[in-house]
Amino acid sequence: MNSKGNCFFPASVMSGADLASWNSLAEFGREQMAMATESASACFRAAESMRKVQMHAAHRASIRHQAVARKLREGGAPADMLAVQADLLSSDLRSVAEYWQQLAAVAVQSQIELMGCASHVADTGGGPGFKPALAL
Known about the structure:
The protein is mainly α. It has helices at residues 16-74, 78-124, 130-135. The longest helix is centred in the first third of the chain and has 59 residues, at 16-74. The radius of gyration is 29 Å and the shape is rod-shaped. The relative contact order is 0.12.
């Protein structure tokens, strides 16, 4: 570097103190991008987990309803047909409760992962200028 600077930056920007602030700014941007990318990855994993829960629930419901439809087609006494339908309703209600519990567990796990992304930045200092923002 010369004392005159260059065509892009005047000499005042090219001084050592100013370059340090530019480096700090670039480091802060890199840390933000890393945190955003890590958070996006956690969100994608959560969406994937939720989709798996939904697919398993739909698969189990399909098998259960197919079996009941077969029983209803076979026919029988009215009381037996009512019992088959009551059993289906009961198993559907249990299945719905299990489904929502599994989705809640995935949501909690996702929140833990997302908080881990944010706390990782806070624990490592997040670069200059990040800690004062957290101290507010």
